[in-house]
């Protein structure tokens, strides 16, 4: 009798656990999906950590581990090496890599614009526009990174070739700030919250602003889809179920961003993301909100703008026959209800 009661009780408890806490249990038993983020504290990539904080990966039964590299190009290399299954980085890498024979596809678009800002040091007052960078040292997150791509294009538009200035990889966050303060770079491309930190201290000012649709269209000629979740095509073809779950988790995250205030979003982030100045973080996030996609889809004409930009200066892409339909897919975000 005791055995029967014990078995029944155990069965009831297991059933209750399944109903109440199914997602975490499934996630623990699922194969781990490692996502490398090209700078996890950057606001352009905020949906990655926010999805984890909101529990959306677990809700989908996913066992996701987020890792971070200082630059998107480093994250890309991890993906190509097979060390990670996905990357949160800039979509433009998908085009650049296809020109090199690598098949990468973005399955969720986080940002309809880059969210990047070209900052000019207070120690370089002669730089009033990108037409003034000849002979200067410009900071980027890494060589071959999206910040490097965009810097080259903005200078190229002013008739300045990459041989006429020096590019210095300085990373992001504190290392970028240090490079500005130490005078190692005259200007450089970075993101929030680094932008707001430099503005607050007066160490740098805005030269080109790609945080808004208006600023991006003016500088690049159209919407420039940037931060995204991308994977190797070979992985995608054999892991469609996982891709669909990742898409659902991130689309829910993007919807959360669009329906909550900057302060409400900041409240969900780890405290070490804003340190002792939450007000500054909230202000920086407020200025970044317009860049996020509402649904994760590739915006109309966006891929074409990115291709046009890269074709303008990148010898790997210029003159190449790029099949844009293989660089992204809306298949999984379109299926999200």
Helicity range of the residues?
A: 40-55%
What is the molecular shape? globular
Spatial extent as radius of gyration: 22 Å
Helix/strand/pairing class, anyone? alpha/beta
The averaged pLDDT comes out at 90
Q: What proportion of the residues form beta strands (DSSP E)? A: 15-25%
The strands making up the biggest β-sheet line up spatially as 2-1-3-10-4
Count of separate DSSP helical elements? 15
Give your account of this protein's structure:
The chain is an alpha/beta fold. It is 45% helix and 16% strand. The strands form two sheets. Strands 2-1-3-10-4 form a five-stranded mixed sheet, with helices on both faces. Residues 1-27 have low confidence and may be disordered.
Write the layout of secondary structure elements.
Layout: H1 2-29, E1 32-37, H2 46-53, H3 56-59, E2 63-68, H4 72-80, E3 86-90, H5 92-98, E4 104-109, E5 116-121, E6 137-140, H6 146-156, E7 166-169, H7 174-181, E8 187-191, H8 194-201, E9 204-210, H9 213-220, E10 227-232, H10 233-238, H11 240-258, H12 262-268, H13 278-288, H14 302-313, H15 331-334
Parallel strand pairs: 1-2, 1-3, 6-7, 6-8
Antiparallel strand pairs: 3-10, 4-10, 5-8, 5-9
Helix pairs in contact: 2-11, 6-14
């Amino acid at each position: 009798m005791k055995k029967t009661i014990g078995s029944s009780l155990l069965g009831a408890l297991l059933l209750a656990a399944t109903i109440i806490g199914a997602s975490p249990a499934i996630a623990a038993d699922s194969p781990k999906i490692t996502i490398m983020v090209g700078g996890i504290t950057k606001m352009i990539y905020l949906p990655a950590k926010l999805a984890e904080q909101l529990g959306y990966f677990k809700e989908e039964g996913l066992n996701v581990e987020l890792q971070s590299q200082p630059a998107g190009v480093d994250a890309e290399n991890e993906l190509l090496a097979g060390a990670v299954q996905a990357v949160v980085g800039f979509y433009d890498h998908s085009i650049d890599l296809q020109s090199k024979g690598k098949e990468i596809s973005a399955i969720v678009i986080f940002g309809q614009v880059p969210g990047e800002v070209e900052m000019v040091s207070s120690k370089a007052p002669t730089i009033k526009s990108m037409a003034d960078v000849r002979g200067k040292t410009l900071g980027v997150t890494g060589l071959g990174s999206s910040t490097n791509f965009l810097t080259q294009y903005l200078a190229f538009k002013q008739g300045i070739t990459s041989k006429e200035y020096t590019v210095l990889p300085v990373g992001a966050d504190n290392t970028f700030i240090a490079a500005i303060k130490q005078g190692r770079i005259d200007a450089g491309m970075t993101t929030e919250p680094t932008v707001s930190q430099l503005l607050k201290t007066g160490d740098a000012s805005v030269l080109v602003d790609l945080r808004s649709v208006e600023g991006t269209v003016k500088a690049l000629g159209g919407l420039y889809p940037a931060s995204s979740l991308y994977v190797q095509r070979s992985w995608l073809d054999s892991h469609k179920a996982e891709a669909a779950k990742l898409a659902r988790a991130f689309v829910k995250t993007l919807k959360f961003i669009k329906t909550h205030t900057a302060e409400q979003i900041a409240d969900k982030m780890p405290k070490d993301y804003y340190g002792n100045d939450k007000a500054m973080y909230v202000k920086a996030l407020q200025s970044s909100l317009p860049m996020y996609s509402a649904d994760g889809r590739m915006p109309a004409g966006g891929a074409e703008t990115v291709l046009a930009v890269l074709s303008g200066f990148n010898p790997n892409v210029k003159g190449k026959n790029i099949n844009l339909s293989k660089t992204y897919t809306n298949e999984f975000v379109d299926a999200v209800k």
